[in-house]
């Protein structure tokens, strides 16, 4: 019986490529799939493109291709990535350039475009679509003039079309995180558009693979001390059957652990209603899923159910939302917390006196409550050291930059043993996110697949 | 009855979407899942995260894997890329969930260590 083996590569922009190379070498896979995009990534790529018209895709795409291209012909592996970001055509060009440089020929690289809808907002408004925020219901007027990007989350179908045209590599912009993983299954098994349970199973497989090691023992909240090989984690591999069932494993001699307990944590990651996980290809129901340990580092996944796909697609837009200026400064025992609190008090008095009015002034005590906020323990009296972190939110970069200048004098003017000052980095641009829904025909009519060859 | 921290009996992972954080809480077996169903109400979780979560908390049940999924709204001071928080992606909500204390019958806690190698759920 035919099976398709798929390996996970990057789980985000900046992830290491090493585990994917191990999978290419020893994982016996036909496809290696990347999820390089997060909400924040799009903003970073927009900024890159503003500085350089040819940029806007994940900069490490060339390096990844250089690492994986040698295996493509030898092992008959195809690569699918959404690392095209805001400039998928530029990414395609870069991949072709790297292939040429390596002396590789007879390689087809496809690009999918049409997810970028920033220029189409007026068209959508003319059609009378309300672009209200899906979570808050607010109208878009307040952010419309500050939009930096707007991309529709597209599904697996255009990637399938690229594979049908013989592509060895498919590069896209903003697909859903799972589209790259589902596409090869539709292509290989010829799943129909309404085989909901199979499609759902393919999406769920993608969900378990798209955050790389998060299903093979990375970020594991159980007995994490028992996980071996954090320095050389193996990324997940799925072996999928025609009926949609699959087994998760990893390359045996890499680090990590694949058990029910490591896999189930990833199962709910960034999921809201588990009976209705919305994707462009199918609505996924996880409430009947069954996990089985069938061998060392092998978990079988069955029982995923699907429901008809939604009529609209999600569009996520990013808008400029001011700047954050941050200062971090440390205090040592004795009375570390007391000293930090005193400096917080002094700074707030000075802000008031100097008429510096920020939208927000935030105080954290790193080593005590910076990651836990009000849930932190109360035993703060004998901390060996603590770092005061103060952040302000301002409309402009200049305003935000003024904040850190209040701190250096306190090294001599303030409570004793203040040290480890870091506040000289430039203020960070903040970006708001606006999610809305657009009828799928409006997006799909504009999707294009183009293949180029070296 | 014993008062236990979730840390000692549960797994948890959190993730973000916009200004929403979801926290999955995983029980080690059916019996403790039943306790979670009764004790880990959305109200209790909202109260636990007071100061971090400003909006509604919705609970979803997954009896198939003995898990609950808590969807916490207005949880990141605006959302990952516009929040001034250090944990701007809500990565630590999972571990902060594990601080929560509930009452569990002693006999349910006895054999927990033997269940690590469970064969299927």
Write the layout of secondary structure elements.
The complex is a heterodimer of chains A (454) and B (121).
Chain A: E1 3-8, H1 18-26, E2 31-33, H2 39-51, H3 61-75, E3 78-81, H4 88-101, E4 108-113, H5 121-126, H6 141-144, E5 147-152, H7 157-164, E6 169-171, H8 179-189, H9 196-209, E7 237-241, E8 246-249, H10 260-267, E9 277-278, E10 283-285, E11 290-295, E12 298-302, E13 305-307, E14 312-332, H11 336-353, E15 360-366, E16 385-394, H12 397-402, H13 410-413, E17 418-422, E18 428-439, H14 440-444, E19 448-453
Parallel strand pairs in A: 1-2, 2-3, 3-6, 4-6
Antiparallel strand pairs in A: 1-7, 4-19, 5-14, 7-8, 8-12, 9-10, 10-13, 11-12, 14-16, 14-17, 14-18, 15-16
Chain B: E1 2-5, E2 11-17, E3 20-26, H1 30-39, H2 42-48, E4 57-62, E5 67-72, H3 93-97, E6 101-104, H4 106-110
Antiparallel strand pairs in B: 1-6, 2-3, 3-5, 4-5
Overview of the molecule:
Chain A folds into two domains: 3-115 and 153-309, no CATH class; 317-433, 2-Layer Sandwich (Alpha-Beta Plaits), CATH 3.30.70. Helices cover 30% and strands 26% of the residues of chain A. Chain A has 14 helices and 19 strands. Chain A has helices at 18-26, 39-51, 61-75, 88-101, 121-126, 141-144, 157-164, 179-189, 196-209, 260-267, 336-353, 397-402, 410-413, 440-444; strands at residues 3-8, 31-33, 78-81, 108-113, 147-152, 169-171, 237-241, 246-249, 277-278, 283-285, 290-295, 298-302, 305-307, 312-332, 360-366, 385-394, 418-422, 428-439, 448-453. A ten-stranded mixed β-sheet of chain A has the order 11-12-8-7-1-2-3-6-4-19, with helices on both faces. In chain A, strands 5, 14, 15, 16, 17 and 18 form a six-stranded antiparallel β-sheet that branches. A three-stranded antiparallel β-sheet of chain A has the order 9-10-13. In chain A, a hairpin with a 4-residue loop joins strand 7 (237-241) and strand 8. Chain A is globular and about 75 Å long. By secondary structure, chain B is an alpha+beta fold. In chain B, strands 2-3-5-4 form a four-stranded antiparallel β-sheet. Chain B has a two-stranded antiparallel ribbon with strand order 1-6. The longest helix of chain B has 10 residues, at 30-39. Chain B has one domain (2-78, 85-110): Alpha-Beta Plaits (2-Layer Sandwich), CATH 3.30.70. Chains A and B meet through helix 2, helix 10, strand 11, strand 14 and strand 15 of A and strand 2, strand 3, strand 4, strand 5 and helix 3 of B.
